[in-house]
Amino acid sequence: MNQKELKELIDFLIEKDISEFELERGDVKVRIKRGGAAAAPIIAHAPMVMAVSPAQSIHSAAPDAHVPAAAAPPAAVEEELHMVKSPIVGTFYESPAPGSLPFVKPGDQVAAGQVLCIIEAMKLMNEIESDASGEVVKLLVSNGQPVEYGQPLFAIRPRK
Q1: Does residue 134 contact residue 110 with C-beta atoms inside 8 Å?
Q2: CA gap 83, 36 in Å, rounded
């Protein structure tokens, strides 16, 4: 089974909302287990601030008058963070071996190419490297958690 077939299988399982699947074909054995809703990332949105043109009446602006103008900057701060995403489906590990120190933790400075974590896929340990230099701001998954293709793993504030 090649990588394209595996990706198509995973897309099919997601589409049909199948949480666990096992396939044996000759000497190849594939077992896929997806996490529940608890594994889904939580995304918060800042309240919208509407600009009122001079042509609009004060009455049309009144419902939005309670929204502070300072609500916009947090969205700008979030946009500055670089997300390191999972290149494969697998299990996330923050350290090279059980009981050892994690590769990185929030607050650490990292360089492009530095190993951030390991993702185990089909009994292979894949080192995931940073594609940006900067400060690790947030770890978005927990140790031993299943991760999906494209799922954000780390938020990094790039160096300026």
Answers
A1: yes
A2: 22
